[in-house]
Amino acid sequence: MTHTAWLDRVSTYVDQLEQIAGTLEMSLSQARLRTSAVNLSALPDQISEWVAAVGQLESMVAERETLLSAADAPAKGTTLIEKLASTGTASDLALMQRCKEVAATVSMAHHCALSLFVCQYHLASFSSDVLRLLSGADAPPTYQSSVGGVGSSEERQRGGGRLFNDAA
């Protein structure tokens, strides 16, 4: 069975996915640089870019399902990569490799977004953390559930060297 029309549709799909993933990756990279330089003024604009890119990625899921269930798609396999691998032709294998590369890009963007969130979460409370450490005040651990769970009798973290108290 010839499935060149299906291959063309998959290639177009991968092109679109690659473009969206590249845009998202570049935006996350710029946000990472701005965060490390403590230049957070442009982050609200980038957040709207992220929302748009993630929305586009989510809309691509329906298109992928259409490609997987198409009548002219290879019968073997449940993912695009498996279907492309099942034919064994050079053009299908090249397209399969592109699918894997785009999947790796999307996965890396996911990891970068998660890391950026954690970094910004901790930067948001940096001033109060420094003041707490300098004053020697007690504070609960950042991740309460990971220390001892709900209702734990675990002691609270002890603050710093009471620099402010000693100076007074």
> What shape does the CA trace take?
elongated
Classify the oligomer: single chain
Give the helix tally: 7
Percentage of helical residues? over 70%
**Gyration radius, to the nearest Å?**
24 Å
Descriptive overview:
With 168 residues, the chain is mostly helical. The chain has 2 domains: 4-124, Methane Monooxygenase Hydroxylase, Chain G, domain 1 (Up-down Bundle), CATH 1.20.58; 125-168, no CATH class. It has 7 helices and no strands. It has helices at residues 4-36, 43-68, 80-87, 90-124, 126-135, 144-147, 163-167. Helix 1 packs parallel to helix 4 and helix 3 (80-87) packs antiparallel against helix 4. The longest helix has 35 residues, at 90-124. The model has no long low-confidence stretch (mean pLDDT 80).
Q: What topology emerges from the helices and strands here?
A:
Blueprint lengths: L3 H33 L6 H26 L11 H8 L2 H35 L1 H10 L8 H4 L15 H5 L1
Short description:
This is FlgN protein. With about 170 residues, this protein is mostly helical. The protein has helices spanning about 5-35, 45-70, 80-85, 90-125, 125-135, 145, 165.
Labels describing this entry:
single chain; 168 residues; mainly alpha; 2 domains; 7 helices; FlgN protein
